[in-house]
Amino acid sequence: MYPIDYFIYAGFVLFMLITLFPFWYVLVGSFNLGTDYLSGGVWIFPRKWSLDNYIFILSDSRLLPAIWMTVLRTTIGTVTSVLFTAIVAYAMHLKELRYKKFFYWINIVTMFFGGGLIPFFLLIVNLGMYDSFAAYIVPGMYSVFNMLVFSAFFRAIPNGLRESAMMDGASEFKIMFKIYFPLALPAFATISLWTAVGHWNAYYDTMLYTVDPSLRTLQYYLMMIIKQSSLPPEMINVPSNIYERVVPQTISYAAIIIAIIPVLIMYPLIQKAYKKGSMIGALKE
Questions:
Q1: Band of the pLDDT at 229, cuts 50, 70, 90?
Q2: Are 238 and 158 contacting, i.e. CB atoms less than 8 angstroms apart?
Q3: Cα–Cα separations (whole angstroms), residue 17 to 6, 12, 84
Q4: Would you say 13 and 31 are in contact if contact means Cβ atoms under 8 Å apart?
Q5: CA 189, CA 265: separation in Å to the nearest integer?
Q6: Is the pTM of this model over 0.85?
Q7: pLDDT tens-digit map of 169-228
Q8: CA-to-CA distance for 244 and 252, rounded, in angstroms?
Protein backbone atom coordinates (compact mmCIF):
# COMPACT_ATOMS: atom_id res chain seq x y z
CA MET A 1 0.00 0.00 0.00
CA TYR A 2 1.37 3.37 -1.04
CA PRO A 3 1.39 6.37 1.33
CA ILE A 4 -1.11 8.17 -0.88
CA ASP A 5 -3.61 5.37 -0.20
CA TYR A 6 -3.75 6.33 3.47
CA PHE A 7 -4.70 9.89 2.53
CA ILE A 8 -7.39 8.59 0.16
CA TYR A 9 -8.86 6.32 2.83
CA ALA A 10 -8.72 9.13 5.38
CA GLY A 11 -10.55 11.41 2.93
CA PHE A 12 -13.28 8.83 2.40
CA VAL A 13 -13.68 8.31 6.15
CA LEU A 14 -13.92 12.06 6.68
CA PHE A 15 -16.47 12.35 3.90
CA MET A 16 -18.49 9.50 5.44
CA LEU A 17 -18.49 11.18 8.86
CA ILE A 18 -19.56 14.52 7.37
CA THR A 19 -22.39 12.76 5.53
CA LEU A 20 -23.63 10.76 8.54
CA PHE A 21 -23.34 13.49 11.17
CA PRO A 22 -26.57 15.37 10.26
CA PHE A 23 -28.53 12.13 10.55
CA TRP A 24 -26.83 11.28 13.86
CA TYR A 25 -27.48 14.80 15.16
CA VAL A 26 -31.20 14.48 14.44
CA LEU A 27 -31.30 11.00 15.98
CA VAL A 28 -29.59 12.21 19.16
CA GLY A 29 -31.93 15.18 19.42
CA SER A 30 -34.99 12.98 19.03
CA PHE A 31 -33.98 10.89 22.07
CA ASN A 32 -33.05 13.85 24.25
CA LEU A 33 -35.40 15.45 26.77
CA GLY A 34 -36.93 18.43 25.01
CA THR A 35 -36.63 20.95 27.81
CA ASP A 36 -33.02 19.94 28.37
CA TYR A 37 -32.21 20.17 24.66
CA LEU A 38 -32.93 23.90 24.66
CA SER A 39 -29.89 24.49 26.88
CA GLY A 40 -27.63 23.36 24.00
CA GLY A 41 -24.57 21.17 23.89
CA VAL A 42 -26.27 17.99 22.60
CA TRP A 43 -23.97 16.72 19.85
CA ILE A 44 -22.73 13.15 20.20
CA PHE A 45 -25.06 11.47 22.70
CA PRO A 46 -28.31 12.52 24.39
CA ARG A 47 -27.62 14.29 27.65
CA LYS A 48 -30.92 13.22 29.17
CA TRP A 49 -32.46 10.19 27.48
CA SER A 50 -36.19 10.38 26.87
CA LEU A 51 -38.83 8.75 24.68
CA ASP A 52 -41.29 11.59 25.24
CA ASN A 53 -40.83 12.96 21.71
CA TYR A 54 -41.85 9.64 20.17
CA ILE A 55 -44.65 9.11 22.69
CA PHE A 56 -45.97 12.56 21.79
CA ILE A 57 -46.25 11.49 18.14
CA LEU A 58 -47.26 7.84 18.58
CA SER A 59 -50.01 8.61 21.11
CA ASP A 60 -52.11 10.30 18.43
CA SER A 61 -54.82 8.05 16.99
CA ARG A 62 -54.44 9.69 13.58
CA LEU A 63 -50.99 8.20 13.06
CA LEU A 64 -51.94 4.67 11.91
CA PRO A 65 -54.51 5.83 9.29
CA ALA A 66 -51.94 8.30 7.97
CA ILE A 67 -49.31 5.54 7.70
CA TRP A 68 -51.77 3.26 5.91
CA MET A 69 -52.71 5.99 3.44
CA THR A 70 -49.04 6.72 2.73
CA VAL A 71 -48.20 3.03 2.25
CA LEU A 72 -51.18 2.62 -0.08
CA ARG A 73 -50.26 5.72 -2.02
CA THR A 74 -46.59 4.79 -2.27
CA THR A 75 -47.32 1.24 -3.42
CA ILE A 76 -49.98 2.01 -6.01
CA GLY A 77 -48.34 5.22 -7.15
CA THR A 78 -44.94 3.62 -7.66
CA VAL A 79 -46.27 0.59 -9.55
CA THR A 80 -48.52 2.58 -11.87
CA SER A 81 -45.98 5.32 -12.53
CA VAL A 82 -43.04 3.03 -13.23
CA LEU A 83 -45.07 0.65 -15.40
CA PHE A 84 -46.79 3.36 -17.43
CA THR A 85 -43.57 5.34 -17.91
CA ALA A 86 -41.66 2.21 -18.95
CA ILE A 87 -44.29 1.33 -21.56
CA VAL A 88 -44.11 4.83 -23.06
CA ALA A 89 -40.31 4.70 -23.00
CA TYR A 90 -40.30 1.38 -24.84
CA ALA A 91 -42.43 2.88 -27.61
CA MET A 92 -40.30 6.03 -27.74
CA HIS A 93 -37.07 4.08 -28.21
CA LEU A 94 -38.37 2.26 -31.30
CA LYS A 95 -37.19 3.59 -34.65
CA GLU A 96 -40.46 2.46 -36.23
CA LEU A 97 -42.56 4.83 -34.13
CA ARG A 98 -44.35 7.33 -36.34
CA TYR A 99 -43.94 11.03 -35.55
CA LYS A 100 -41.29 10.11 -33.01
CA LYS A 101 -39.55 13.50 -33.14
CA PHE A 102 -42.84 15.31 -32.62
CA PHE A 103 -43.67 13.24 -29.52
CA TYR A 104 -40.13 13.64 -28.26
CA TRP A 105 -40.14 17.43 -28.40
CA ILE A 106 -43.63 17.65 -26.93
CA ASN A 107 -42.31 15.70 -23.95
CA ILE A 108 -39.19 17.85 -23.67
CA VAL A 109 -41.23 21.08 -23.64
CA THR A 110 -43.26 19.85 -20.66
CA MET A 111 -40.03 19.38 -18.69
CA PHE A 112 -39.24 23.09 -18.84
CA PHE A 113 -42.63 24.76 -19.07
CA GLY A 114 -45.79 24.24 -17.02
CA GLY A 115 -49.16 25.87 -16.62
CA GLY A 116 -48.61 26.80 -12.98
CA LEU A 117 -50.31 25.91 -9.74
CA ILE A 118 -53.72 27.51 -10.34
CA PRO A 119 -54.35 25.94 -13.79
CA PHE A 120 -53.20 22.58 -12.42
CA PHE A 121 -55.54 22.93 -9.46
CA LEU A 122 -58.45 23.75 -11.77
CA LEU A 123 -57.55 20.73 -13.89
CA ILE A 124 -57.66 18.48 -10.84
CA VAL A 125 -61.08 19.87 -9.92
CA ASN A 126 -62.53 19.62 -13.44
CA LEU A 127 -61.35 16.02 -13.81
CA GLY A 128 -63.14 15.08 -10.61
CA MET A 129 -59.99 14.18 -8.71
CA TYR A 130 -60.27 16.83 -6.00
CA ASP A 131 -60.55 15.32 -2.52
CA SER A 132 -60.06 11.79 -3.87
CA PHE A 133 -57.31 9.19 -3.81
CA ALA A 134 -56.86 9.64 -7.57
CA ALA A 135 -55.23 13.03 -6.92
CA TYR A 136 -52.26 11.12 -5.50
CA ILE A 137 -51.93 8.64 -8.36
CA VAL A 138 -53.01 10.03 -11.72
CA PRO A 139 -50.90 13.25 -11.89
CA GLY A 140 -47.72 11.30 -11.14
CA MET A 141 -48.30 8.36 -13.46
CA TYR A 142 -45.92 9.72 -16.08
CA SER A 143 -42.51 11.35 -15.77
CA VAL A 144 -40.66 12.66 -18.81
CA PHE A 145 -37.30 12.47 -17.06
CA ASN A 146 -37.87 8.85 -16.05
CA MET A 147 -39.03 8.08 -19.59
CA LEU A 148 -35.72 9.39 -20.94
CA VAL A 149 -33.82 7.22 -18.47
CA PHE A 150 -35.78 4.14 -19.51
CA SER A 151 -35.35 4.96 -23.21
CA ALA A 152 -31.59 5.29 -22.83
CA PHE A 153 -31.45 1.89 -21.14
CA PHE A 154 -33.65 0.28 -23.80
CA ARG A 155 -31.46 1.69 -26.57
CA ALA A 156 -28.44 -0.01 -25.00
CA ILE A 157 -30.08 -3.42 -25.47
CA PRO A 158 -29.11 -4.95 -28.86
CA ASN A 159 -31.94 -4.64 -31.35
CA GLY A 160 -31.11 -8.14 -32.56
CA LEU A 161 -32.94 -9.56 -29.57
CA ARG A 162 -36.14 -7.87 -30.63
CA GLU A 163 -35.72 -8.89 -34.26
CA SER A 164 -35.08 -12.52 -33.29
CA ALA A 165 -38.15 -12.58 -31.09
CA MET A 166 -40.28 -11.11 -33.86
CA MET A 167 -39.06 -13.77 -36.26
CA ASP A 168 -40.19 -16.37 -33.73
CA GLY A 169 -43.67 -14.84 -33.73
CA ALA A 170 -43.50 -12.89 -30.46
CA SER A 171 -45.82 -9.91 -30.18
CA GLU A 172 -44.60 -6.44 -29.27
CA PHE A 173 -46.06 -6.70 -25.79
CA LYS A 174 -44.41 -10.08 -25.22
CA ILE A 175 -41.05 -8.70 -26.34
CA MET A 176 -41.46 -5.74 -24.04
CA PHE A 177 -42.48 -7.72 -20.94
CA LYS A 178 -40.39 -10.86 -21.47
CA ILE A 179 -37.15 -9.43 -22.88
CA TYR A 180 -36.71 -5.68 -22.42
CA PHE A 181 -38.22 -5.24 -18.97
CA PRO A 182 -36.19 -8.07 -17.32
CA LEU A 183 -32.99 -6.74 -18.87
CA ALA A 184 -33.84 -3.24 -17.66
CA LEU A 185 -34.23 -4.30 -14.03
CA PRO A 186 -31.47 -1.90 -12.83
CA ALA A 187 -33.41 0.99 -14.36
CA PHE A 188 -36.64 -0.27 -12.81
CA ALA A 189 -34.99 -0.52 -9.39
CA THR A 190 -33.52 2.98 -9.57
CA ILE A 191 -36.63 4.71 -10.88
CA SER A 192 -38.85 2.77 -8.47
CA LEU A 193 -36.72 4.09 -5.63
CA TRP A 194 -36.98 7.68 -6.86
CA THR A 195 -40.73 7.39 -7.32
CA ALA A 196 -41.38 5.65 -4.00
CA VAL A 197 -39.35 8.19 -2.03
CA GLY A 198 -41.20 11.00 -3.80
CA HIS A 199 -44.58 9.55 -2.87
CA TRP A 200 -43.49 8.78 0.67
CA ASN A 201 -42.22 12.31 1.33
CA ALA A 202 -45.07 14.14 -0.42
CA TYR A 203 -47.44 16.30 1.61
CA TYR A 204 -48.03 19.35 -0.58
CA ASP A 205 -50.70 17.68 -2.73
CA THR A 206 -52.48 16.53 0.44
CA MET A 207 -52.61 20.12 1.58
CA LEU A 208 -53.86 21.43 -1.78
CA TYR A 209 -56.13 18.75 -3.20
CA THR A 210 -57.77 17.06 -0.20
CA VAL A 211 -59.96 18.01 2.75
CA ASP A 212 -61.07 14.54 3.83
CA PRO A 213 -59.16 13.56 7.03
CA SER A 214 -59.02 9.93 5.83
CA LEU A 215 -56.83 11.03 2.90
CA ARG A 216 -54.13 12.60 5.07
CA THR A 217 -50.70 11.13 4.52
CA LEU A 218 -47.93 10.54 7.04
CA GLN A 219 -45.84 13.55 6.05
CA TYR A 220 -48.83 15.87 6.26
CA TYR A 221 -49.74 14.40 9.62
CA LEU A 222 -46.21 14.89 10.96
CA MET A 223 -46.28 18.48 9.76
CA MET A 224 -49.53 18.98 11.68
CA ILE A 225 -48.00 17.39 14.79
CA ILE A 226 -45.02 19.75 14.67
CA LYS A 227 -47.35 22.74 14.39
CA GLN A 228 -49.63 21.49 17.16
CA SER A 229 -46.69 20.99 19.54
CA SER A 230 -46.81 24.73 20.25
CA LEU A 231 -50.53 24.69 21.13
CA PRO A 232 -51.88 24.67 24.70
CA PRO A 233 -51.93 21.18 26.28
CA GLU A 234 -55.72 21.08 26.59
CA MET A 235 -55.94 21.20 22.77
CA ILE A 236 -53.71 18.17 22.25
CA ASN A 237 -54.59 14.56 22.99
CA VAL A 238 -51.39 13.66 24.87
CA PRO A 239 -50.64 13.33 28.60
CA SER A 240 -49.90 16.73 30.15
CA ASN A 241 -46.73 15.45 31.85
CA ILE A 242 -45.28 14.51 28.45
CA TYR A 243 -46.35 17.80 26.89
CA GLU A 244 -44.37 19.70 29.52
CA ARG A 245 -41.14 17.85 28.64
CA VAL A 246 -41.12 18.24 24.85
CA VAL A 247 -40.35 21.15 22.55
CA PRO A 248 -41.21 21.61 18.86
CA GLN A 249 -37.59 21.15 17.76
CA THR A 250 -37.14 17.71 19.34
CA ILE A 251 -40.59 16.67 18.16
CA SER A 252 -39.58 17.58 14.61
CA TYR A 253 -36.45 15.44 15.01
CA ALA A 254 -38.56 12.46 16.11
CA ALA A 255 -40.91 13.05 13.17
CA ILE A 256 -37.98 13.03 10.75
CA ILE A 257 -36.69 9.73 12.14
CA ILE A 258 -40.13 8.11 11.91
CA ALA A 259 -40.52 9.29 8.32
CA ILE A 260 -37.16 8.02 7.05
CA ILE A 261 -37.23 4.55 8.67
CA PRO A 262 -39.12 2.93 5.74
CA VAL A 263 -36.75 4.59 3.27
CA LEU A 264 -33.74 3.17 5.11
CA ILE A 265 -35.34 -0.27 4.96
CA MET A 266 -36.08 0.12 1.26
CA TYR A 267 -32.54 0.98 0.15
CA PRO A 268 -30.99 -2.47 0.80
CA LEU A 269 -33.88 -4.15 -1.03
CA ILE A 270 -33.45 -1.90 -4.05
CA GLN A 271 -29.69 -2.47 -3.98
CA LYS A 272 -30.22 -6.23 -4.08
CA ALA A 273 -32.55 -5.87 -7.06
CA TYR A 274 -30.04 -3.62 -8.77
CA LYS A 275 -27.26 -6.19 -8.43
CA LYS A 276 -29.50 -8.95 -9.71
CA GLY A 277 -30.58 -6.82 -12.67
CA SER A 278 -26.96 -6.01 -13.52
CA MET A 279 -26.16 -9.72 -13.75
CA ILE A 280 -29.16 -10.37 -16.00
CA GLY A 281 -28.25 -7.48 -18.26
CA ALA A 282 -24.69 -8.75 -18.58
CA LEU A 283 -25.95 -11.89 -20.38
CA LYS A 284 -27.39 -10.02 -23.33
CA GLU A 285 -24.11 -10.05 -25.22
A1: low
A2: no
A3: 16, 9, 39
A4: no
A5: 14
A6: no
A7: 888 889 898 889 988 888 888 888 889 889 988 888 999 999 998 999 988 888 887 776
A8: 16
